[in-house]
Every structure is written in structure tokens, then in C-alpha cells.
């Protein structure tokens, strides 16, 4: 009888076991896309174009779990910086980052007011130069995102316990 209870206990407890986690592949840098190579291999222009880049917002509302965080956006929040880098790498454009333009204008007002009152510091006594005007203005939003993650695994999950894996 005691053997029967041990056998039943072993069978019941074996259902709580999960497969050992698979070792994740080492992280690698994503290779540059063909469009980036096309952009950087354009012929050299006769003159560069000034382009102002305003804020590129994420309007997808997509969130994706990451191992180190519980709540993270699926789309990178640095789209403006990525666009400025791509424009600069093309050698066709001189990007004028305008994402923080309102803060810059406020600071310039403070400096001008201090210059008029005579209370300006030694480093701000020179008159302010005007801002560079742009030939093109870029502003936009990210409105779509599709994930390439599929889930799967072995066995069944009960109350959130079980074996599963996410594949890319």
C-alpha cells in the first residue's frame, strides 16, 4: 500500500516539472538594411540641403514584454534621433534637430532679457546669432507595428505554470 502512495505521489508531482529553459542565442547587432546601404551610396551632392526634423511620435500604443522590464513600448522611442542619423549619414542633408525647439527659444528669451537688464554673465555677453532656416521640414508619427514573435511550447499550462517559449 505504501508503494502505491509513493507511485501516485511521484506521478502527481512529475506533472509539476517543466522542461529546462532553452539557452538563448547570444545577442547580435541587426545587419543594416538594403535601404540604408542605398542611402549611404548615393552620389555626392553639389550642395547639402538643410532639413529641420521635429518630433517623431509613437502612436501605435503597442507594448511588448522584455526580460528586464514588465512594461515597455514595442517601438523604439528614439525615432527622431534615428532619422537625424540617417539624414546625416546620407551626406545629402544637414539635419537641424528641432525636437527641443521650444526649450531653446525659452532659453534665448532669458538670455536676451538678461542682456537688456545688464545682468548677463560673462559667457553670454555676445549677441545671439539667428537660427538656421531649413529648406525642408520633417515631422511625423509611427502609426503601425507588427511583431514577429510567435509563442509555443510543450505541455499544458495550468494557473500560469507550465512550459512555453517565444520564437522569433
UniProtKB/TrEMBL annotation:
A Pfam family reported for this protein in Swiss-Prot or TrEMBL: CsgG
Membrane among keywords: yes
InterPro entries per UniProt: Curli_assmbl/transp-comp_CsgG
Keyword Signal: yes
Domain of life: Bacteria
First and last residue of the signal peptide: 1-24
Entry keywords, A to Z: Cell membrane, Lipoprotein, Membrane, Palmitate, Signal
GO cellular component, one term: outer membrane-bounded periplasmic space
Similarity remark: Belongs to the CsgG family.
Function: May be involved in the biogenesis of curli organelles.
Name by which UniProt lists this protein: Curli production assembly/transport component CsgG
Source organism of this protein record: Enterobacter cloacae
Amino acid at each position: 500500500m505504501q508503494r502505491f502512495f509513493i507511485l501516485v505521489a511521484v506521478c502527481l508531482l512529475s506533472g509539476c516539472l517543466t522542461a529546462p529553459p532553452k539557452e538563448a542565442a547570444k545577442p547580435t547587432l541587426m545587419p543594416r538594411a538594403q535601404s540604408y546601404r542605398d542611402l549611404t551610396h548615393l552620389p555626392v551632392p553639389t550642395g547639402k540641403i538643410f532639413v529641420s526634423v521635429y518630433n517623431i511620435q509613437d502612436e501605435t500604443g503597442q507594448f511588448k514584454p522584455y526580460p528586464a522590464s514588465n512594461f515597455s513600448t514595442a517601438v523604439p522611442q528614439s525615432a527622431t534621433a534615428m532619422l537625424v542619423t540617417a539624414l546625416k549619414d546620407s551626406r545629402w542633408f544637414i539635419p537641424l534637430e528641432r525636437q527641443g525647439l521650444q526649450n531653446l527659444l525659452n532659453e534665448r528669451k532669458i538670455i536676451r532679457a538678461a542682456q537688456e537688464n545688464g545682468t548677463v554673465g560673462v559667457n553670454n555677453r555676445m549677441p545671439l546669432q539667428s537660427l538656421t532656416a531649413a529648406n525642408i521640414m520633417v515631422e511625423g508619427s509611427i502609426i503601425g507595428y507588427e511583431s514577429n514573435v510567435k509563442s509555443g511550447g510543450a505541455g499544458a499550462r495550468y494557473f500560469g505554470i507550465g512550459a512555453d517559449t517565444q520564437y522569433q
